[in-house]
Amino acid sequence: MAAPKDSGYIQTSDPSRPRSDAAVPFRDIIPPPTHPKIAGIEHCDALSWTESRRQIPAPAWLISRLEAQNLETPFRGFTSDGVVRDDVWSDAYSGDEGAPVEAAAEAANALLDLLSEEERARTVYDSVTDDAIRLWSNPELYVNPGGLRLDEVSPAVREGVHALLRASLSPEGYDKVLGCCLTNGFLGHLVNGRRVLNEDSYNLRFFGGRASTDPAAPWGFTFFGHHLCMSVVFSGRRMVIGPTFMGAEPDRIDEGPNAGLRLFLTEEMESLKLMQSLPPALQEKARLSEGMGEEALGSERWNPFDERHLGGARQDNRVLPFEGIPYTALPAAQQTQILALYRAFNEYYPASVLERRVETFKQHLDQTYFAWIGPHGDDDPYYFRIHSPVAFCEFDFHCGIFLTNSSPARCHIHTINRLPNRGDYGRALVEQVGLKKVDSGTAAAEKKVAAL
What we know:
Blueprint: H1 46-53, H2 57-66, H3 101-114, H4 117-123, E1 124-125, E2 148-149, H5 155-168, H6 171-190, E3 202-207, E4 219-225, E5 228-235, E6 238-248, H7 265-277, H8 280-286, E7 287-289, H9 294-297, E8 325-326, H10 332-345, H11 351-362, E9 369-373, E10 383-388, E11 391-397, E12 413-418, H12 427-432, H13 443-450
Parallel strand pairs: 1-3, 7-9
Antiparallel strand pairs: 2-3, 3-4, 4-5, 5-6, 6-12, 8-9, 9-10, 10-11, 11-12
């Protein structure tokens, strides 16, 4: 089934973008209660809202795409030419990275001990290679229910989930995760849909049976929901976080106890400075398209939900050639900005692990590319990505999903961070430490995923 042309909610009265002179542009584009984007949301919970979206062709298309039965198997990995390069991770996970496995394992097992038998049955999987680890999705649509839904569990279990996140991530990383949750709750407040969009409308699934500090017994978890999805895998004192999705609509909170919270400022401003500071000839080498819609990019490169993103949910096996300008062709100042952007995309790693990820990224700078879509004025929306054999970082300004702007605007941000060549889901890591390669298309795995 072909992707729809629009989200299914656009009205002729919807503005193309907020007024550029508005102090907080998103205030101009909050939908009225009768707008089809949100009509009836105040009466819905997450499941009934999702069922209501199945009655509209465009979101129904998205729901179908995200359902477990349509997961692409077997898992091969994100590549530039269809061929997995095992060599790119050969030295990446050697030795002790200083990953906080002791604290994370303690928090994980404390959480597991809180669960009822029924909660354990729908939350815990035996192996990090189970295909259920790939069933994350970033819309508010509650597809493939299972695991611990934070707005459905006890306060003790909810705090146990956050304790696991705090123990696994850097302080900055946990703050960013919490910021995504708080911004999601703020959106629910703006559209009177707090039962659908709130700080706790996220799911956790656990993989590995039980958390361990033994490198030969990898374990991990996924945490995902609207504008926040991450996969975390530990193998002893080594760890992988990815794929990761983080976003915000709107991009800041302007009232209440969290007023002033703004996410992705580094990713936004450093990328724009980089593009604006390039000589015109290099800007043109980096730019893939001036236009940002399907007319400019083609149906294979654009849809009304992912828009320009190519590494989102259900893109685990995508083949995408390198495009844009090589890192080696950039002036020294802009090369430094590429490294700063890579750090910003990965700041959720604990400090010592982040340094290892940066070193691995630096080893492949001669095969690293920077690409841009759209204009680059101070108020313009745009897309950029950094792509190498070990990194795929995307940033995009989107049309409104709940807000009413019908073209991309600077108040709705999506970011995606993938690890090409089987780095996603810690697969390259666990295969290096001796866990036999698993064909995730086996009948057993497919049966379990289909049951979700």
